Amino acid sequence: SSVKNLPLKKRLCFLLKLVCLVSSVLVFCEFFIYYVVIFQCRWPEVKGGADVGQKETSTSVLKAIVLADTHLLGEIKGHWLDKLRREWQMERSFQTALWLLQPDLVFVLGDVFDEGKWSSPQAWADDVRRFRKMFRYPASTELVVVAGNHDVGFHYEMTAYKVNRFEKVFNFTSGKLIARKGINFVLVNSVAMEGDGCALCRSSEAKLAALSHKLNCSQQRPNHSDTRCSDVEKLPASAPILLQHYPLYRKSDAECSGEDSAPPEEKNIPFKEKYDVLSREASQKLLWWFHPRLVLSGHTHSACEVLHAGNVPEISVPSFSWRNRNNPSFIMASVTPTDFSLQKCFLPSESRVFAIYCAAGALLLILILAHFQLLTPPFYFAQRLISKHKA
């Protein structure tokens, strides 16, 4: 009866306040929080300019964002609500990062899709459409995508059809070189580095070997004579950066550290060659062919930094999807032909967003109870307890 007697104007005013509170929390958690978090990320400074002894300028530094394992859900295993939530999170993060950071290049290190290895032509077309909507980019930015095992299948599932449709959509080929601002980036289809002589593996390795020869000639390595390099196209004389999905061989993640490394219970689990990481043989081939100054990989969904052959750093980039981890991130790389510097940019933690929603829900409940006088004031409750005790 007390509720009915409330003036209509007062009830409408209270309802408006509740709507404003709910809307504010929703807009902050689903939109503005990405700006608040990513705004704190800064491009790392790099020492070396375009030429040795020349002062570095902003135009000589290439700015690249590196992310991995988006795993867009498919029609078989993906629930519509899970799709809606995860894709909105990744779209807002990516679009906010592009707007705030304005990179020259964006690299996606494989496993773009979760079901590319078995999706039908219709499902594949739908997945591609959704990816292009989420990861749209301006003309000033270039997007480069590398194949992963969920895109074309593990080696035993990989077929020419799956590889060709991926290459057609993303203009990707194993052994492809991207040279920007005098910097060489080498793209590797690590799924084809099985080493068993399959047709796709042979083709991929042949392209990589040919590209290795060109790069070594351009860098004038001692074992490449002038006669062997006389007819070879000259490329920028810069040690390349390797981009691939599988990490190079390592025993496990036991030596990895950081808040986004693998959980403690998983770190000591040995990696399986050709499944979790490349084989020893394939890893040695890539290191010997290209002598890279940096290797960037994905696949494990967790961060790790290791040194190969004593001087080649490899960074495993964590998953970009909240479905795979509570604290996704991406790498910000400032690169010149002679140097590079990396910085990690974390995205909003899902646990923090959930805590904000819970706190807002509790506050909303308290306001409703207080408004309708259903919340007993503490002093009145204590007075009733004392009266009962005396009685």
Automatic annotation (TrEMBL):
<dbReference type="InterPro" id="IPR029052">
    <property type="entry name" value="Metallo-depent_PP-like"/>
</dbReference>
<keyword id="KW-0813">Transport</keyword>
<keyword id="KW-0337">GPI-anchor biosynthesis</keyword>
<feature type="transmembrane region" description="Helical">
    <location>
        <begin position="354"/>
        <end position="381"/>
    </location>
</feature>
<dbReference type="Pfam" id="PF00149">
    <property type="entry name" value="Metallophos"/>
</dbReference>
<comment type="similarity">
    <text>Belongs to the metallophosphoesterase superfamily. MPPE1 family.</text>
</comment>
<protein>
    <recommendedName>
        <fullName>Metallophosphoesterase 1</fullName>
    </recommendedName>
</protein>
<dbReference type="InterPro" id="IPR033308">
    <property type="entry name" value="PGAP5/Cdc1/Ted1"/>
</dbReference>
<dbReference type="InterPro" id="IPR039541">
    <property type="entry name" value="MPP_MPPE1"/>
</dbReference>
<keyword id="KW-0464">Manganese</keyword>
<dbReference type="GO" id="GO:0012505">
    <property type="term" value="C:endomembrane system"/>
</dbReference>
<dbReference type="GO" id="GO:0008081">
    <property type="term" value="F:phosphoric diester hydrolase activity"/>
</dbReference>
<feature type="transmembrane region" description="Helical">
    <location>
        <begin position="12"/>
        <end position="37"/>
    </location>
</feature>
<keyword id="KW-0812">Transmembrane</keyword>
<keyword id="KW-0472">Membrane</keyword>
<keyword id="KW-0378">Hydrolase</keyword>
<feature type="domain" description="Calcineurin-like phosphoesterase">
    <location>
        <begin position="63"/>
        <end position="302"/>
    </location>
</feature>
<dbReference type="GO" id="GO:0033116">
    <property type="term" value="C:endoplasmic reticulum-Golgi intermediate compartment membrane"/>
</dbReference>
<keyword id="KW-0931">ER-Golgi transport</keyword>
<comment type="function">
    <text>Metallophosphoesterase that catalyzes the removal of a side-chain ethanolamine-phosphate (EtNP) from the second mannose of the GPI-anchor protein intermediate. Participates in the glycan remodeling steps of GPI-anchor maturation to allow an efficient transport of GPI-anchor proteins from the endoplasmic reticulum to the Golgi.</text>
</comment>
<dbReference type="InterPro" id="IPR004843">
    <property type="entry name" value="Calcineurin-like_PHP"/>
</dbReference>
<dbReference type="GO" id="GO:0046872">
    <property type="term" value="F:metal ion binding"/>
</dbReference>
<keyword id="KW-0479">Metal-binding</keyword>
<dbReference type="GO" id="GO:0006506">
    <property type="term" value="P:GPI anchor biosynthetic process"/>
</dbReference>
<dbReference type="GO" id="GO:0006888">
    <property type="term" value="P:endoplasmic reticulum to Golgi vesicle-mediated transport"/>
</dbReference>
<keyword id="KW-1133">Transmembrane helix</keyword>
